[in-house]
Amino acid sequence: MTVPLAIRVAFMIALALPLLSIGAGPKKASADPLVVDLSNHLVAITTGFTGTNVLLFGAVEEEGDVVVTVRGPDQDMVVRKKERKVGIWVNSESARYKNVPAYYASASNRPMDIIASPEVLLDYRIGLQNQRFIGESKLSDDDQKVYREALVRNMQGAGLFGERPAKISFLSNQLFRTDIHFPANTPTGTYTINVYLIRDGRVASVKTTPLVVSKTGISAEVYEFAHRYSALYGIIAVIIAVVAGWIASVVFRKR
User: Fold this and answer.
1) What is the rounded average pLDDT of the residues 58-77?
2) pTM to 2 decimals?
3) Among 23, 65, 46, which Cα is nearest to 167's?
4) Mean pLDDT throughout 136-158?
5) Which DSSP symbol is given to 152?
6) What does R_g of the chain's alpha carbons equal in angstroms?
7) Is the distance from CB of 213 to CB of 191 less than 8 angstroms?
8) What pLDDT shows up at residue 27?
9) Where are the membrane-spanning stretches (predicted)?
10) Lowest-confidence range among 13-17, 113-117, 142-146, 156-160?
11) What pairs with residue 198 in β-bridges?
12) Minimal CA–CA distance to 116: which of 65, 178, 169?
């Protein structure tokens, strides 16, 4: 059963009350400097799924900057270069990359280059430019750059890589929120959401929370059958196409 958003928000506020109170020193010392949660930890993909937003909200003990990263499951990807031959665009050379996230997005309350130094962002793999895609060793540095840029461009075109960080809004000095958008073509799997509290250019606290994207209903059964019995699924698809074509031809012949 899904917990209503209002109840989850109320629970988060209750957790945040010790952070917001102006208590004695011992209370502050025992308080968690960063508390976060999601409006939903499951994105259910049904037949009519057109995309959705998941609310991330939280509280900080003291003022600071907040950065959020969302990384989908890793996958291998092939990037192909197209060449024009005899007036036709055809695939020529290609490069394979490992550890490419199926989805990547980020959010921050201020520009990241103001929040932290490039070294800190690199150390924590914050930002699309700091994601480590493992390319084939045979590629030169120049080719690595060209193919990587093409990979990022393709994923951004598909809406699976955020082109720029989303906005984190502070509702007060301590409470913050942001929306994470998942498009209709979001891949299934377990996603890792990291929330960083940064003060004076240094990471003061990190919280990690998972989110699962899963197919449900009839679409899930068809998807599982197609992957588990791919050969049989292909044969059935061909038979259905042939039968549908035959029925259509009979109907039009009678008319």
Assistant:
1) 95
2) 0.74
3) 65
4) 87
5) H
6) 24
7) yes
8) 46
9) 231-252
10) 13-17
11) 65, 203
12) 65
> How large is the average pLDDT for residues 78-106?
82
Judged by average pLDDT, the poorest of 21-25, 178-182, 193-197 is 21-25
Sequence-distant (6+) residues with CB within 8 A of 139 are: 95, 147
d(CA 38, CA 69) in angstroms, rounded, equals 13
What is the Cβ-side half-sphere exposure of residue 234, based on CA atoms within 13 angstroms? 5
3 vs 124, residue with greater confidence: 124
1 pLDDT higher than 60? no
In angstroms, rounded to a whole number, what is the distance separating the alpha carbons of residues 145 and 226? 36
Alpha-carbon distance of 171 to 177, in angstroms, equals: 8
Considering only CA atoms, which of 64, 11, 76, 37 is closest in space to residue 180? Answer: 37
DSSP 103-134: -EEEEESS-HHHHS-HHHHHHTT-SGGG---E
- Of the listed ranges 142-156, 166-180, 216-230, the least confidently predicted one is 216-230
DSSP-assigned letters across all residues of 177-197: EEEEEEETTPPPEEEEEEEEE
Helix (H) or strand (E) holding 144: helix 141-157
Q: Which residues pair with 16 in a beta bridge?
A: none
Separation CA 255–CA 248 (nearest Å): 11
Q: How many CB atoms lie within 10 A of CB 60?
A: 26
